[in-house]
Design a protein that fits this description.
- It is a single chain.
- By secondary structure, the chain is an alpha/beta fold.
- The protein contains six helices and seven strands; from the N terminus they run βαβαβαβαβββαα.
- Strand 1, helix 1 (about 40-50) and strand 2 form a beta-alpha-beta unit.
- Helix 5 crosses helix 6.
- The longest helix has 17 residues, at about 205-220.
- It is globular.
Length: about 230
């Protein structure tokens, strides 16, 4: 999965992985928070390099969804909220990226100024993905799913407590797999993992380990059986 079938290899702000190297990329959107916490991305990359055998580039990259070649240069892309991707061309490029083997990690910032309603967040991103790829299934992953223990053994209790005042629904807490057939093409995280590694000392170890698990899973599993329905 480290190399996608792209028609163009060059990207101005996203260098393609070389020599087995993989990378961390963030999707540029119209949200003013799309690059929130990017100053901590090298810390996460360092953690991944230290704790795994993945040859991850220590540099983070921004990828423009208007550029299919930039998307395809990065096999794993982090995005805060697809609701801010509104261009038809950009959405078509994201669909093409996923169908060529790319993986999206959609992770909510669990603070009211950035994600006022977590239930709306889940529903909105689910609906966008289902429009993008007809037949795609968004399924809540049980805590026994391999993504929770493919590298580190983690459990949802490792990600709490969330910041005071965080709006959340226990019904919708969790990690949701995005399946096209049996292949998982992405996840929707309701844990606010990114906000855990720079801001919350109590949450940092669990949040960083879960991100590593998602990354390792994305890089090593081209398909997975549907586990459970929400």
């Amino acid at each position: 999965m480290a190399a996608l079938a792209c028609t163009a290899a060059n990207a101005e702000s996203a260098a393609g992985p070389r020599g087995g190297r993989v990378a961390w990329g963030r999707m540029i959107t119209k949200s003013r928070y799309w690059n929130f916490h990017t100053d901590r991305d090298p810390i996460l990359a360092g953690f991944i390099r230290k704790e795994t055998t993945l040859n991850i580039d220590p540099t983070w990259y921004s990828v423009d969804p208007a550029r299919l070649d930039q998307l395809c240069a990065i096999p794993f892309i982090y995005v805060k909220d697809l609701a801010y991707v509104r261009s038809k061309t950009e959405l078509q490029n994201i669909r093409e990226y996923l169908q060529r083997g790319g993986f999206l990690c959609i992770d909510a910032c669990t603070t009211p100024p950035r994600t006022p309603d977590m239930e709306v967040y889940l529903r909105t991103n689910r609906d966008i993905l289902q429009r993008l790829i007809p037949g795609v299934e968004i399924l809540r992953l049980p805590e026994t799913h391999a993504i929770y223990h493919c590298y580190f053994k983690v459990q949802p209790g490792d990600f709490f407590p969330l910041p005071n005042g965080t709006p959340r629904s226990r019904e919708h807490d969790g990690l949701y797999g995005v399946f096209e057939g049996k292949r998982m093409v992405g996840v929707i995280s309701m844990y606010g993992l990114e906000c855990g590694w720079p801001e919350s000392p109590a949450r940092k170890p669990g949040c960083m380990k879960m991100i590593v698990n998602i990354y390792v899973y994305a890089m090593t599993h081209s398909a997975d059986a549907v586990a459970t329905s929400p």
